[in-house]
Amino acid sequence: MKKWIFCAGGFCFLILLTGCGSSLQNLAEQILYPYQSTNSQFKTPTTPPSGLGEVTFDFKDQSNQPVHIVAWTYQPPNGSNKTVVYFHGNAENLDALWVSNFLTVMQEFKTNYIVIDYPSYGLSTGTPNQYTLVTAADKAIEWAKQTYPNNQIIVWGRSLGCGVATLATGQEQSLVSKLALTSAWTNFLAVAESVTSLASDLPQSWVSQNNYDSASVAPSIHLPVLMQHGTADTTIPFTFGQQLKTDFTSSPSVTFDAEQGLNHNNMFTSPTVWQQLNSFINGN
Questions:
Q1: Which regions of 200-264 does DSSP assign to beta strands (E)?
Q2: C-alpha–C-alpha distance, residues 62 and 244, integer Å
Q3: DSSP sequence for 83-149
Q4: What does DSSP say about strands 53-60 and 225-230: parallel, antiparallel, or unpaired?
Q5: What's the angle, vertex CA 70, arms to CA 66 and CA 71, rounded to 5?
Q6: Order of strands across the sheet that contains 225-230
Q7: Does residue 183 register a pLDDT over 60?
Q8: Closest alpha carbon to 112 in 147, 60, 61, 87
Q9: How many helices (DSSP H) and strands (DSSP E) are in the chain?
Q10: What is the H or E stretch that residue 59 is in?
Q11: C-alpha distances in angstroms, 151 versus 47, 114, 227?
Q12: Which tens digits make up the pLDDT trace of 96-152?
């Protein structure tokens, strides 16, 4: 497989520890949704790269404000009976995934795929929070099933995208065949509290709208699950992946791949990670 040459997408809790002059809530939002720094580094083009298509979704957020989501799509030359719906990390956008070679490597699955940009990321608009990200994910899953009604739909998330993928799969389970999670976690507050005691002072109203509580949704998911986690991950410690694994109590199978010595931002440098994903996605 082609090498993924750029790694990003982890949470940066050092901001919580060292930030001052702003509210704790604003700092948490900067950690969870660093779209400004991401967009300044990676400029998503208005036209997708050659070989990719574009679809968009529009809906209203909780305050009845418009949200516009941009997604890139891919169809293999010979067609496929599987479609992957991918949700990226919090420090990535579509351009980052393209220039890093990630989207090109995904083509080696030989499946259809759709990858969205979250609100405020790339060319997408709207306010990022749990409702808008998960609603955007729902739209992408529904589009995949409507466009490829006879396909298996495989939902795959990475880092922040694991929370998005798990919550959306819980809501769209009748449309989904499998769930893959790379560097997953139980919920945002638990991870934040493992790093700093300041996290417990976050307003409950904000936490409830941004917690991505995968642990509470996992027991309701009745699908095969693949989980991958680096044992040296200090951004989302390995134990959080292990904990979430035990919450998939209704899944017919949960495969947990412990990648020895890998950390949060070099998971995709491992050929084993890609091989496992390929086997999981293209298996029966």
A1: 225-230, 254-259
A2: 28
A3: EEEEE--TT--HHHHHHTTHHHHHGGG-SEEEEEPPTTSTT-BS--SHHHHHHHHHHHHHHHHHHST
A4: unpaired
A5: 140
A6: 53-60, 66-74, 112-116, 82-87, 152-158, 178-182, 225-230, 254-259
A7: yes
A8: 147
A9: 12, 8
A10: strand 53-60
A11: 27, 13, 22
A12: 999 999 999 999 999 999 999 999 999 999 999 999 999 999 999 999 999 999 999
Tokens 């209203």 locate to 60
Domains of the chain: 14-282 (3.40.50.1820)
Task: In whole angstroms, give the CA distance from residue 258 to residue 238.
Answer: 8
Query: How distant, in Å, are the alpha carbons of 82, 86, 272, 279 from that of 275?
Result: 17, 17, 5, 6
8 Å CB contact between 55 and 143: yes
**pLDDT, tens digit, 9 for 90 and up, residues 203-249:** 999 999 999 999 999 999 999 999 999 999 999 999 999 999 999 99
